[in-house]
């Protein structure tokens, strides 16, 4: 068990290393001088020289990389050109809205999508199944910012029930926090529910065709228990896998949702940084998001050993 | 006369309207008395499994019983509502299936799966259920039940899993046990043990058994009475000896004549020139050292063999014996780890692909699964001329010889323009044989080539293989797990176990006077070895 | 029984054209493609025409403009105007062009590159490890972030947006193709072709690659849909195609600041975008169900 864990953790190192190299090279290998790109169109010679000095761009590429990655590992993400702050401080001040939005969305999604998909599979071919699948295609096709604005239009502008945009820290009151996160997480959850409900349906359908389901029925087991005890327990691994994959969609969705609802989180920071060509911030945020994504999928891999006795060591 | 535990009367199950016939089964009537084993036997598509599922109420939604009744101790299961049917399943009738691996829930402990039966139908407490589960595991002779009860299915062997299935089925002492091909997925030695167990359980408890199988050896071994089905109808039923020894219906007579005998016919040794020489062949899977995970399997270990022109060498063994690995090494679908393969003095064991290619035409192979052996997107003609054209024969000439080959294997030459899905399994296997012959090979490898076929088709394809072997003076390497088939077609026989050749000799001698303990075990395990079917005709 | 004599390919085609999802989705997609192609003929004006006096007008607003000869011509802003007085209706119609170009280009490029890499990874075992580690790494960066990272380096424009969206799609295609190649190379008919002496390139083209066509068509439609969404997102965030070019994302970005007063600038292009993606996804779903249900699960 420990050796399995260790091997899985070791296996993520080359992936993270590749991500780091990729993000590093993205800026260095772009046609043109990185310092000029970073400085932007309106910079003068001294500003460009200053940036070049700061990034150590005159050093050999390999040295630059190791200096950069070394700093990252120590938690030093450099200084933001735009905000004139340490990127690590910037990230720390922006992480709460993003974390809140993501967690609320995940909770919302899983509680809705898994029962929905299971039900659709169990009632395969019925009007219920068709309805759920229809919703799933629709939900997968509605871009999150379109849903976001439609929700704002309906609930905030027309009905006036909920605040339009903005964020309230959880320390300033859970009620206000939840109220302001309700629409964003709902908007973000739609695509997510569509995706996970559909994959849950597929997984459960596949399991329902297995021989051991027939065995359970031959034992005289009730249909509810066949579904819960035999089908869902076996479909757990693919469903959890899909939830892990969905985190990639979630992270992308967070960027857009935060922009629509002006939530001052990491997603909005990313967009602001790109618009300001604030490269240290862009690199740090992308690296951080990728790291979280890899970590989540590592956790999911490890959870397999608990869900399926065949996967061990 | 005692009341039967199962009395099926006039059962008809309709197929959906797009099926190839109106009814899956039609007007089926049969009985199973207490303590009796009734075998329902038939080839694929005969409707034998549908009959069994109908009694249990486990038919797929598309299949509906439209007439007749299935009386379980006088109660019609076809008319029972869902709740009643659930109450009957497990308590009065139980079922075991073909694949013991897939029939058990892979993520639940086996003890839990036995106890589930008690949980559904009795008011036992958890500790009582566990005690009862251990008890029944002991009864089906599982080793160390106290420990095994907490194992998962994948930690058990195939035979052990089937014992668990039997334990689940019998834990509530049902009147009727339905066994749907319960030994088909098992090796022959395991099969013999499971058959013994079913018989023992049934005798001890007086259970009536409805036993579905396609294997006449198994029928001979276990049946009291036999029901023969064809195309959804019963063609004949009677006692075991009546049906097997003195069949009345022409279909049954044909089937009995098709079952290969366990007695090899007399053969004169073939003294032709050596076609292929294999020395010290080994194949190892998995890597050792820095990048391997330490798990190394020696699938074939120091195998030495030769085949003469016009001779058939059989390799028999159970699954995992390495017989197919040897075949695939010789066909160079995989590269052997060590050893030499010599074709007329050309060493092909180590040749790289580019230099190997000219020699490939000399060794051709026919695979087990006729449904996956032909590219479904290409016409039969294109499949047949692929190899000749590769070796430089003009397309017209290749097509002309493809036509005559099709006739040689008993198919119409017009079929060249058709696609594989338009042919039956047996016809496809004939096409595969024609394809192998198209490049006039020296060596033909048949890797379980008749194992997926029904017994009547199997007999015909065996005959064809033997025919072309003689006609083209081919050296044939015949891989099989089926001793009956091996007895009929092979001149010499090699027995493999766990990658090693344990016995080698003329077929007659190996069958009459086996030297190795494992060979003896295999021969003794072969079901129905003492029964002569029908006229007992040889190939 | 008449269908049995048809080749497997013809039978599949027959099934496709009888699938309601394919028919409805396909028709809608066709309408949108025609809309993009014949944009100038659909009662539109120059989508970049600025008219400061007609800013932020509601749908159905009528006014007059002077044409090149100085004559007053009546015009209707069917779907209102944006903050620069441009006709939202015309911008939406022309916007279909950019969306379709991006969608199709991304699908075509990612499938071509992904197929080549996937076949190499699936057939040549010694390269497999390296290639798949690189793909894992690429897939570890969430798609939109990767796209954002790529566009942030180039000057905004159609080509850079297409590249930015293509990069994260490639590893997905590679995985799909590789998994098919790995399973097909074990098929007995492929092994039969090996013993028939068929050379590797021909073997791949003849026996292996045809099996990737159906899943790739399905995957391709889904790539088109997702590329259209990502392009709209990038433009909406202001980091995609330059704001003066009429794209659905740009129209919506334009409407953001005045959304609470003039929601039509966001809702109408949003609706058309959603409908487009929906019809492509329906087409994809229908194709998957008819072409290749087995491979549906792999994606």
Automatic annotation (TrEMBL), chain A:
Tell me the InterPro entries matching this sequence: BPD_transp_1_N, MetI-like, MetI-like_sf
Query: Superkingdom, according to UniProt?
Result: Bacteria
- Which sequence ranges are marked TM in the entry? 9-27, 99-122, 134-157, 177-197, 235-261, 281-307
Question: Where found in the cell?
Answer: Cell membrane
Keywords of this entry = Cell membrane, Membrane, Transmembrane, Transmembrane helix, Transport
- Residues of the ABC transmembrane type-1 domain: 95-300
Membrane topology per the record? Answer: Multi-pass membrane protein
GO BP: transmembrane transport
**Residue ranges of coiled coil:** none
Cellular component, GO, one term:
plasma membrane
Q: What is its main location?
A: membrane
Query: What family is it from?
Result: Belongs to the binding-protein-dependent transport system permease family.
Q: What is this protein called?
A: ABC transporter permease
Q: Which organism is it from?
A: Aliishimia ponticola
UniProtKB/TrEMBL annotation, chain B:
> Pfam families per the record?
ABC_tran, oligo_HPY
Q: Which GO terms describe its biological process?
A: peptide transport; transmembrane transport
Q: Which family does it belong to?
A: Belongs to the ABC transporter superfamily.
| Annotated compartments | Cell inner membrane
Q: Which residues form the ABC transporter domain?
A: 6-256, 276-523
Topology of the protein relative to the lipid bilayer: Peripheral membrane protein
Classification via PANTHER family: DIPEPTIDE TRANSPORT ATP-BINDING PROTEIN DPPD, OLIGOPEPTIDE TRANSPORT ATP-BINDING PROTEIN APPD
Which superkingdom does the taxonomy of this entry point to? Bacteria
Tell me yes or no: is Transport among this UniProt entry's keywords.
Answer: yes
Name the UniProt record assigns to this protein: ABC transporter ATP-binding protein
Automatic annotation (TrEMBL), chain C:
Output the Pfam families linked to this UniProt entry.
Answer: BPD_transp_1, OppC_N
Please name the GO terms of the biological process aspect recorded for this protein, alphabetically.
transmembrane transport
Q: How does it sit in the membrane?
A: Multi-pass membrane protein
Q: Which residues cross the membrane?
A: 22-43, 100-124, 144-167, 216-241, 261-284
Cellular component GO terms, alphabetically?
plasma membrane
Keywords, sorted A to Z:
Cell membrane, Membrane, Transmembrane, Transmembrane helix, Transport
From which domain of life does this come? Bacteria
Q: What family is reported?
A: Belongs to the binding-protein-dependent transport system permease family.
Where the protein is mainly located, per its record?
Answer: membrane
User: Which protein, by its recorded name, is this?
Assistant: ABC transporter permease
Matching entries from CDD domains are given as: TM_PBP2
Report the InterPro entries cross-referenced here: BP-dependent_transpt_permease, MetI-like, MetI-like_sf, OppC_N
Q: Where in the cell is it found?
A: Cell membrane
Q: Where is the ABC transmembrane type-1 domain?
A: 100-284
């Amino acid at each position: 068990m420990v050796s399995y864990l260790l091997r899985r953790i070791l296996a993520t190192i080359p992936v993270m290393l590749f991500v780091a190299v990729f993000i590093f090279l993205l800026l260095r290998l772009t046609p043109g001088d990185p310092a000029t790109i970073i400085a932007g169109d309106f910079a003068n010679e001294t500003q460009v020289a200053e940036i070049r000095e700061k990034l150590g761009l005159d050093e050999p590429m390999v040295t630059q990389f190791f200096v950069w990655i070394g700093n990252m590992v120590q938690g030093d993400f450099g200084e933001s050109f735009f905000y004139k702050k340490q990127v690590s401080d910037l990230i720390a001040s922006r992480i709460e809205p993003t974390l809140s939005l993501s967690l609320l969305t995940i909770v919302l999604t899983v509680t809705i999508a898994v029962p929905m998909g299971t039900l659709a599979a169990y009632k395969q071919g019925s009007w219920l199944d068709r309805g759920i699948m229809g919703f799933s295609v629709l939900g997968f096709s509605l871009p999150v910012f379109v849903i976001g604005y439609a929700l704002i239009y309906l609930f905030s502008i027309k009905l006036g029930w909920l605040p339009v945009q903005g964020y309230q820290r959880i320390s300033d009151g859970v009620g206000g926090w939840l109220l302001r996160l309700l629409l964003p997480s709902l908007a973000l959850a739609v695509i997510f529910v569509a995706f996970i409900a559909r994959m849950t349906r597929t997984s459960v359908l596949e399991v329902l065709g297995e021989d051991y389901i027939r065995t359970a029925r031959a034992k005289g087991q009730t249909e509810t228990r066949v579904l819960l005890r035999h089908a869902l327990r076996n479909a757990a691994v693919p469903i959890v896998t899909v939830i892990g994959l969905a985190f990639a969609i979630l992270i992308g969705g967070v960027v857009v949702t935060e922009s629509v609802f002006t939530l001052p989180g990491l997603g909005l920071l990313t967009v602001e940084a790109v618009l300001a060509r604030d490269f240290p911030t862009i690199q740090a945020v992308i690296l951080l998001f990728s790291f979280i994504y890899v970590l989540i999928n590592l956790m999911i891999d490890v959870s397999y050993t608990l869900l399926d006795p065949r996967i061990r060591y | 006369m005692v009341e039967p535990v199962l009395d099926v009367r006039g059962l008809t199950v309709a197929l959906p309207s797009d099926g190839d016939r109106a009814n899956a089964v039609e007007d089926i009537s049969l009985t199973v008395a207490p303590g009796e084993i009734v075998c329902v036997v038939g080839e694929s598509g005969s409707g034998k499994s549908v009959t069994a599922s109908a009694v249990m109420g486990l038919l797929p939604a598309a299949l509906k019983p439209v007439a007749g009744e299935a009386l379980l101790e006088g109660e019609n299961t076809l008319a029972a509502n869902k709740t009643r049917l659930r109450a009957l399943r497990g308590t009065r009738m139980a079922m075991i299936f073909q694949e013991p691996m897939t029939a058990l829930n892979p993520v639940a402990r086996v003890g839990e799966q036995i106890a589930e039966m008690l949980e559904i139908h009795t008011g036992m407490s958890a500790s009582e259920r566990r005690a009862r589960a251990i008890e029944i595991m002991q009864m089906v002779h599982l080793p160390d039940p106290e420990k095994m009860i907490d194992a998962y299915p994948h930690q058990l062997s195939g035979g052990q899993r089937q014992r668990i299935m039997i334990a689940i089925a019998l834990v509530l002492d049902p009147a009727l046990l339905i066994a749907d091909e319960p030994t088909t997925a098992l090796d022959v030695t395991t099969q013999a043990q499971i058959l013994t167990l079913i018989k023992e359980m049934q005798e001890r408890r007086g259970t009536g058994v409805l036993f579905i199988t396609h294997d006449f050896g198994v029928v001979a071994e276990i049946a009291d009475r036999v029901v023969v089905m064809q195309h959804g109808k019963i063609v004949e039923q009677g006692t075991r000896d009546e049906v097997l020894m003195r069949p009345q219906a022409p279909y049954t007579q044909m089937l009995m004549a098709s079952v290969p005998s366990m007695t090899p016919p007399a053969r004169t040794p073939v003294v032709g020139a050596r076609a292929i020489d294999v020395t010290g062949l080994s194949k190892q899977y998995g890597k050792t050292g820095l990048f391997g995970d330490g798990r190394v399997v020696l699938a074939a270990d120091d195998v030495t063999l030769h085949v003469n022109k016009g001779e058939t060498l059989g390799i028999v063994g159970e699954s995992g014996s390495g017989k197919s690995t040897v075949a695939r090494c010789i066909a160079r679908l995989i590269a052997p780890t060590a050893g030499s393969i010599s074709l007329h003095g050309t060493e092909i064991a180590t040749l790289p692909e580019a230099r190997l290619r000219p020699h490939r035409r000399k060794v051709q192979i026919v695979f087990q699964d006729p449904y996956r052996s032909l590219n479904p997107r290409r016409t039969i003609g294109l499949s047949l001329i692929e190899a000749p054209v590769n070796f430089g024969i003009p397309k017209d000439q290749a097509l002309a010889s493809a036509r005559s080959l099709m006739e040689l294997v008993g198919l119409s030459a017009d079929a060249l323009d058709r696609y594989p899905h338009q042919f039956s399994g047996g016809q496809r296997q004939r096409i595969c044989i024609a394809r192998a012959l198209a490049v006039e090979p020296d060596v033909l490898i048949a890797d379980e080539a008749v194992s997926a076929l029904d017994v009547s088709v199997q007999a015909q394809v065996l005959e064809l293989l033997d025919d072309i072997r003689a006609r083209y003076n081919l050296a044939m390497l015949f891989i099989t797990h089926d001793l009956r088939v091996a007895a009929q077609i092979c001149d010499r026989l090699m027995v493999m176990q766990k990658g090693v050749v344990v016995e080698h000799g003329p077929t007659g001698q190996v069958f009459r006077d086996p030297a190795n303990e494992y060979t003896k075990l295999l021969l003794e395990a072969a079901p129905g070895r003492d029964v002569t079917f029908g006229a007992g005709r040889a190939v | 029984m008449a269908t049995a004599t048809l080749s497997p390919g013809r039978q599949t085609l027959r099934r496709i054209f009888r699938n309601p999802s394919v028919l409805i989705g396909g028709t809608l997609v066709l309408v949108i493609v025609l809309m993009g192609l014949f944009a100038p003929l659909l009662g539109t004006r120059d989508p970049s025409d600025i008219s400061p006096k007609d800013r932020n007008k509601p749908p159905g607003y009528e006014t007059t403009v002077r044409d090149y000869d100085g004559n007053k011509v009546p015009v209707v802003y069917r779907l209102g105007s944006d903050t620069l007085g441009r006709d939202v209706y015309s911008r939406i119609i022309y916007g279909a062009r950019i969306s379709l170009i991006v969608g199709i280009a991304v699908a075509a490029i990612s499938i071509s590159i992904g197929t080549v890499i996937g076949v190499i990874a699936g057939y040549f075992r010694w390269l497999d490890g390296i290639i798949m580690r690189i793909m894992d790494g690429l897939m570890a960066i969430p798609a939109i972030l990767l796209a954002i990272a790529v566009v942030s380096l180039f000057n905004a424009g159609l080509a850079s947006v297409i590249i930015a969206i293509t990069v994260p799609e490639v590893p997905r295609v590679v995985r799909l193709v590789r998994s098919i190649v790995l399973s097909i190379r074990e098929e007995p008919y492929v092994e039969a072709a090996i013993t028939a002496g068929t050379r590797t390139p021909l073997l791949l083209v003849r026996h292996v690659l045809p099996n990737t066509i159906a899943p790739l068509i399905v995957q391709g439609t889904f790539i088109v849909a997702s590329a259209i969404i990502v392009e709209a997102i990038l433009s909406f965030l202001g980091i995609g195609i330059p704001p003066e070019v009429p794209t659905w994302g740009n129209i919506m970005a334009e409407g953001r600041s005045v959304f609470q007063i003039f929601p039509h600038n966001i809702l109408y292009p949003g609706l058309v975008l959603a409908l487009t993606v929906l019809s492509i996804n329906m087409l994809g779903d229908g194709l998957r169900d008819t072409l290749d249900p087995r491979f549906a699960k792999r994606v």
